[in-house]
Amino acid sequence: MQSKTNKKLNLEWAQKVLFLLFVFCVFSFVFSSCSVNRRLKKADKKYEIGEYFAASDLYKNVQNAVSKKDKKKKAVVAFKLGECYRLTNNDAKALRAYSNVVKWNSENDTAYLRCAEMQQALGRYSDASKNYARFLKKYPESRLALSGKLACDSALQWKKNPTRYVVKFASEFNSKRNSDFSPSFMGSGESLVFTSNRDSKLSKKNSAITGQPNNNIYFIKKNAEGKWVDLELMEEEFNTMEDEGTPFCSLDGKMFFFTRCRYVKGCNLGAEIYLSKRSGGQWSEPKKLEIFKDSSITVAHPALSTDGKYLYFVSDAENGVGGKDLWRCEVKGDVFGTAENLGSQINTEGDEMFPSFDSKGNFYFSSDGHVGLGGLDIFKAICDTSGNWVVENMKTPINSSADDFGITFERGQIERGFFSSNRNQKKGIDKIWSFELPEVVFSVEGKITDQNNESISDAVVKIVGNKGTNVKLKVKKDGTYRINLKKDEDYVMLASGRGFLNMSHQFTTVQLKNSKVFQQDFQLVSLRKPVQMDNIFYEFGKWDLTEESKKSLGGLVKLLNDNPNITIEISAHTDSRGSEEFNLELSQKRAQSVVDFLIQSNIEKERLTPKGYGKSTPVVVSKQLAQKYNFLRENDVLDETFYKHLTEQQKEIVDQINRRTEFKVLTTTYNLF
What we know:
By secondary structure, the chain is of the alpha+beta class. It folds into 4 domains: 41-160, Alpha Horseshoe (Serine Threonine Protein Phosphatase 5, Tetratricopeptide repeat); 166-436, TolB, C-terminal domain (Neuraminidase, 6 Propeller), CATH 2.120.10; 442-523, Carboxypeptidase-like, regulatory domain (Immunoglobulin-like), CATH 2.60.40.1120; 531-667, CATH 3.30.1330.60. Helix content is 29%, strand content 29%. It has 13 helices and 34 strands. Strands 6, 7, 8, 9 and 10 form a 5-stranded antiparallel sheet that branches. Strands 11, 12, 13, 14 and 15 form a 5-stranded antiparallel sheet that branches. Strands 1-22-21-20 form a 4-stranded antiparallel sheet, with no helix packed on it. Strand 32 (567-573), helix 10 and strand 33 form a beta-alpha-beta unit. The N and C termini lie far apart (155 Å).
């Protein structure tokens, strides 16, 4: 009886335990869900006010806390995490987050677009192109995706064919570990201002938006030698504990614009443009510009047009094209007119920012919506007489797969200045780079020598162009020369020297886009000595010229055309093998073969005399031959007596040397009288 009672009690106890466990699990689940939702709301609040860095840590924790079974919720959190990373320039982490969105919720089409953008920014153009294509299947008219796919397909070609710009790291402006960006020349261009979050007394804590110290405006100037010196923080009127940057100074140096981002009780008030005026060597207290009636609308990145008539800026105001747009308002003294959007030829579904102008009034800006290499690219825009904008990507090396923005031009220059980029930066921090488009220059240089490679110190070079160039120059003592040329001109050169035949050369600079130095050496032919012609060959025991020989004789044809008043003898020589009679006849026929070819090449036969010498005129060893063959000495005569004491291999070499075709000048007055 007691046993049954005990069993009953144990069963009741077990049921109570199970019930308590069930209640605990339900309570834990509800508590956990409430905790996740509470943290998610907190993260969303940070995100909404633009504190992306702070929000990213919260979203990451929430993502880990969401149940693996709740894939849709994990995808929502992952997408916002990706947005935070994207907006703080952490492209690699952003890509991982967006990839998780695709894995957990393949119906989120925007995730494919974001994956493509991040892959493009990381230079993974093939993968990016595929994701753009996926997005375009559902949104075939998306200008952002169309531009992105076209950019990926074009990027590799652009990288293979960079522009002539030379880009260098501007070490004089950049700090070691912090961001430095948005340079801008001041006044006459002897000083420059830029944005930096390097250590200063005003950068005491990191921004909740970027996770880095707040930005300040710095100033640097050139010394008498043209070097940048005396880097310092701008006056306290411009720098506060808030975030300041993207400065711009008017051409007359009297108006100073900049952007300030203010926080009040932890609330981000967005970006605002401030203006200070210079009078009597002092800057006035900066005042906020009331560009829109609604003061909550963000405005930033100020820049005056070259003529000073318009203030250009960036804003996310409503009624724009999409994302951040470029706007402008007319400047009338101290009054700024109604803001107008620059329209869809400039603005896209993406972001357009950092307006700028060169000295000729050409407009520049950065965009991730136009066809580019990835991230922000710098674009040049020219407005035609009809008011239409023609937008052109600046291509590599100014643009890269990273963010490239904030370009500024030296005063009076349109091809030299500085810009910002986070290329080659592991943490995505921004740095300042210089750029310059070198002048396209052409020249021709070379050396004038004789057939023995000895310099002809009194040689003369003359060059004539079809656009008026006419230069005559005596070479240096070592026989060298250099002459500057013009672009888009056809040239004829003539090299001459006393006791030598003239030689000419033709070349052109027409349609050449890059600088070039033409290398042109001249080896002048003596009027007094026989000249051996290289690569003149005949079939064994015959006198027929080989095809290779005919090509080599083209040089002699040109020489005769360059010197129309000379007559020459074509001299053929054989080796010592065979009878004298046979060799004499063979050499005569070979000389005649050369003459026949020259006549076929439109050389008058009266200028040509064939002469066969057989084996009667062996070679006298020159300095060059002695250096080439160690069994020969200078001035040795390669006759039959010398021949007898040689090895079979040496005999073959001597036979090759003696078998030759030469020419020598007979007269220099043909057709002169």
